[in-house]
Amino acid sequence: MENSKSIVLPVTLKGGENYLLWSRTAKAVLCGRGLWRHVEPVTTQPGETTTVVAVADEVKRFQEDQAVLAILQSSLDISVLEAYSYCEKAKELWDTLKNVFGNASNLTRVFEVKRAINNLSQEDMEFNKFFGKFRSLWAELEMLRPPTTDAVVLNERREQDKVFALLMVLNPVYNDLIKHLLRAEKLPSLDEVCSQIQKEQGSLGLFGGKGELVVANKGELATANKSYFKPGERKPFVCDHCKRPGHLKDRCYLLHPHLNPNPGPSKWKDQRDWRDKRDRREPRANLSYDASPSIESAGCSVQVRGEALVRTPEEGTAMAASSTEYVKKADLDALIKHLKESGNAFNSLKTSKSLIVDSGASHHMISDVKLMSDIKPAVGDVIIANGDRIPVKGIGNLNLFNKKSQAFYMPSFTSNLLSVKRTTSDLNCYAIFGPNDVYFQDIDSSKVI
């Protein structure tokens, strides 16, 4: 037992989610040191007499038992150790942890493991790491459901799988019912579960408060209850946080910026005020105040489209429209200043290709080499919507809001595609889509980039 001081279990028990892994590693370590008999002692046969040697070894056995207890305690998470530090013997601690976390018929854990396997996806994860998670989940499921040839057990598991499949696709409003069903000693049959769901649906329609349910007579209910509504009796909503009417605290844009359908800093309001004042002035030539603002001058026009500022040549001479109407330099400078401050435009590009925000693109796909830097040759294809494969010529860096993001160089594309997935991941931000615009909001500071 002299080497017990150096024994350290490789896994820390944090609860029921990793008990099986912890128990397997602990058993392997203790068996390798010849200490497993303290956890599962060998029973003596009736009629055996206690010898003097056995009495003499009692003190040594107690010492070894305490050493095993210390080894097990060293592998427990601090929260688990505080809860079960009262166990004074190794077997007592082992049995207690097994009863609490190692219930082989734990329906909740079986459901969690099956749902984790069903939702497991590799995405950008390395295959070895992904396969390790996959094998770990399957191994735990096999420990919870050991192989058997018993027809009764197989039929019971088949019925359970039907119920699990139904519970996985239910509306989130039934989460309380799912927890109640999984806490039972035995999982109900599929028919009984459907009956419980029907009852729960009726209670939701009666008491409400858990979200909307799709019902056939929804329009009829609204019409039938319309006569009971009195506008004078309804009190306006007032937020407890900002003290403004029209919403409650849980829907306040100041506390939950992602709920704002048109978020932005106060400078947007200043820009709108400036635009309103501008519209009230007398009309001037070469300025277009469309839904997509543009600035036309002699020989060119600049159009704003979401995140891109596109400059295209014009054949006409707009300045010749009127010799008395012109654009003041101060007005043009003020407009350019507001565009730069609002972050709605990149630097003017000497190309007719704009940056298009694409929510379906897996990577940035840039056709304009001037937008990229450090381009390195690459081999691969990109599959477009019609199934064609477009070769990737290289991989480089794309500068997004002073941060670099990797992009594919696709010279054969007619547009520059900006991936929403890559942008939100690299910039750590939200992508907020409006009717005509797209905004990127920083997650940490809640400010629009």
Oligomeric assembly: single chain
- What share of the residues does DSSP label as strand, in percent? 5-15%
Reading the helices and strands in chain order gives HHHHHHHHHHHHEEEEHEEEEEEEEHEE
Q: For the largest sheet, list the strands in their spatial order.
A: 1-2-3-4
The radius of gyration over CA amounts to: 34 Å
Overall description:
This is Retrovirus-related Pol polyprotein from transposon TNT 1-94-like beta-barrel domain-containing protein. The protein has 449 residues and is an alpha+beta fold. It has five domains: 94 residues, no CATH class; 101 residues; 30 residues, no CATH class; 72 residues, no CATH class; 88 residues, Cathepsin D, subunit A, domain 1, CATH 2.40.70.10. Helix content is 39%, strand content 14%. The strands form five sheets. Strands 1-2-3-4 form a four-stranded antiparallel β-sheet, with no helix packed on it. Strands 6-11-10-7 form a four-stranded mixed β-sheet. It is elongated.
Strand-helix topology:
Layout: H1 19-32, H2 52-56, H3 58-74, H4 78-83, H5 90-101, H6 107-119, H7 127-144, H8 151-168, H9 175-182, H10 190-207, H11 218-224, H12 266-280, E1 287-288, E2 294-297, E3 300-305, E4 308-313, H13 329-342, E5 355-358, E6 364-366, E7 372-377, E8 381-383, E9 389-391, E10 394-400, E11 403-409, E12 416-419, H14 420-427, E13 429-433, E14 438-442
Parallel strand pairs: 5-12, 6-11
Antiparallel strand pairs: 1-2, 2-3, 3-4, 7-10, 8-9, 10-11, 13-14
